[in-house]
Amino acid sequence: MMQKKRLLPLELKQLEALRRRIDPCHSQLGAITEEIEKVKGNYRRNVDIDNVLHLLNDEGLNLFHDLQLEDDWGVLSLNTLIVAKSFIAIVDVLQVEGEVTWKWNQFIAHRRSFPERIPNPSSHVATLKIRLERWLAQHSITAVPINAFVTYTEAETFLITEDSDVPVCDFDQLLAQLRDLHYFSPPTLPEASLISLCDLFKNSHVSSKLNVLEVFNISESEVLKGVHCPDCRALPMKRYPQIWQCPWCLFRSNNAHQTALYEYQLLYKDTISNKECQEFLMIDSPRNSYNLLTSVKVKSQREHKGREYYLSPIL
Ligand SMILES: [Zn+2]
After folding, report:
1. Which of 33, 69, 206, 299 could form a disulfide with 76 if both were Cys (CB 3.0 to 4.6 A apart)?
2. How far does residue 281's CA lie from ligand 1's centre (Å)?
3. What contacts 24+ positions apart, CB below 8 Å, involve 63-68?
4. Residue 244 CA, ligand 1 centroid: distance in Å
């Protein structure tokens, strides 16, 4: 059963919002674009693997994609978690495109003009396994054995090895091993406990947002303000009573501010004050800013002058 689907990564939306809101000549533009391509590639590879794992949906296994749990070390990010009566499996993906060699206990990627050693993903999943065991123990669950796998997408990664002890497996090996565990391991969880465990995972998921400005060392003053024109993408549109108009292509919109508020949320925080809204959207008066904020039906907190408005419903 699909318990949690994989969505477009929040990190990708944040990075794209940042790229839209810095000067086209900014020194970090190249680094941000490179990171966007990396996150997109990882997402594409994850979806390829998901499509194969979905074959297990019909076999009574519970699938969670992109599950994030809070533990003593921060956020425990699990690419894919499979939960069954007899086992739990962590499935991670070798995130490399192109030719990879496994030799002398090392992965060497050949994606650039020179060979590049990449971290052994089996060490990473071993750490995830220990953290998940501790997280489950804190919820009084100790009976279910946890297995960890690393796989790769054969459409994008070409693995070359003569060793038999390579710590990653292809799709077919992965499915065979998961089916072996499912059909030949003794059940350790009654049906009711399995349902409770799946509910626990679902209810414990936390959404973690990056501080993208800090990651790229970009100050708030470098972030471009205003509302983008939905037609020609120019910045900023001018606010007239009830309408936005682009001064360059004259396109008119009555809801272009919604995207700008969404980008504010991606880059800063889930609440906004009237003053912050006025400044970010470049509106000429506090009254017009207030009217616009209330028109998007945001909830407010604190009944005084420093009132903040929740933006969560539009994220
Ligand atoms: Zn325009």
Report:
1. 69
2. 16
3. 63/1, 63/2, 63/3, 63/4, 64/3, 64/4, 64/201, 64/202, 65/4, 65/5, 65/6, 66/4, 66/6, 66/7, 66/9, 67/4, 67/201, 67/205, 68/205, 68/206, 68/207, 68/208
4. 10
The pLDDT of residue 302:
62
Instruction: Calculate how far, in angstroms, residue 20's C-alpha sits from the geometric centre of ligand 1.
Output: 15
Q: Where are the domains of the chain?
A: 2-204, 225-314
Give the pLDDT score at 88: 96
Give me ligand 1 centre to Cα 16, in Å.
19
Give me ligand 1 centre to Cα 258, in Å: 16
132 CA to middle of ligand 1, Å? 50
Cα of 239 to ligand 1 centre, how many Å? 13
What are the distances in angstroms from CA 68 to CA 134, 186, 232?
Answer: 15, 28, 37
Other CB atoms within 10 A of residue 60 CB: 11
Would you give the distance in Å from CA 132 to the centre of its chain? 19
Distance, CA 228 to ligand 1 centroid (Å)?
8
62-74 residue pLDDT tens: 999 999 999 999 9
Measure 235 CA to ligand 1 centroid, in angstroms. 8
Q: Say which DSSP state 100 is in.
A: E
Q: Supply the pLDDT for residue 297.
A: 65
Rama region for 37: left / alpha / beta (φ>0; ψ in -120 to 50; rest): alpha
Tokens 């962590």 appear where? 90
Distance from the alpha carbon of residue 211 to the mean position of ligand 1, in angstroms: 30
Q: Residues of the chain whose pLDDT is less than 70?
A: 297-305, 312-315
pLDDT of amino acid 95? 84
